[in-house]
Amino acid sequence: MPPAPPETRILAVANQKGGVGKTTTTVNLATALAACGKRVLIVDMDPQGNASTGLGVSPEKRSQGVYQVLIQGLPVAIAEAATLVPGMAIIPSGVDLSGAELELISVDRREYRLRDAVEQVRGRYDFVLIDCPPALGLLTLNALVGADAVLVPLQAEFYALEGLSHLMRTIERVQRALNPKLVLQGVVLTMFDRRNNLCEMVAADVRGHLGERVYRTVIPRNVRVSEAPSHGKPVLLYDLRCAGSQAYVRLAREILQREDGLAGRPAMAS
Is pTM beyond 0.70 here? Predict the structure, then answer.
């Protein structure tokens, strides 16, 4: 018998709150996973297209992307764009995606459009990371229905747990109605400043509520991480030695270790 195709893990990187590091985490975690020898695809579901910009995909190379996949049924293989990172591709997004929420309302299987598309690449990639917009609309819903699990970047701030509880309720609703296999992959604390007592208090609170589902690795505030997108590069290519790059490398290793530990075991509900 021929060997079974490799398992593809599809992760929605989601948080309905903006400015918490979703795109930064998507791009740099994907790069770190690729550096570990994994084949990675990013799906840029945010109409702002920041993941595409941060990977140096110019606007003229975005004429075939997420919008065409969702609305026109374009095959993923045609929509993929190469990146500077070996082993990593992206389905880019552009301004046309901003109208997709309204157009999806009248489309057949509107909640399943992304899932149907991503099924085409199962076995071709080890990881598919979906960068979600900062809202719980049809684009994010497509990501949650198409994903195996949700990775939540969480800024260590006062209202963090309140926003997380809203997202957890959304995940539970999607589990019940549209995607029973969906689970919480984990929570990663971002923009972390160890000099700030509030960050430490929020971290302790989140860990107290979610335990081991909060990654040990935290992503620090780091100027080099903020600078990298303006150069069209992940921070690992821009400055591998900076604290932000090293944090994303550690996060990738932690995720891979957890994946290895969960292999063959039944998934736990979130």
Answer: yes
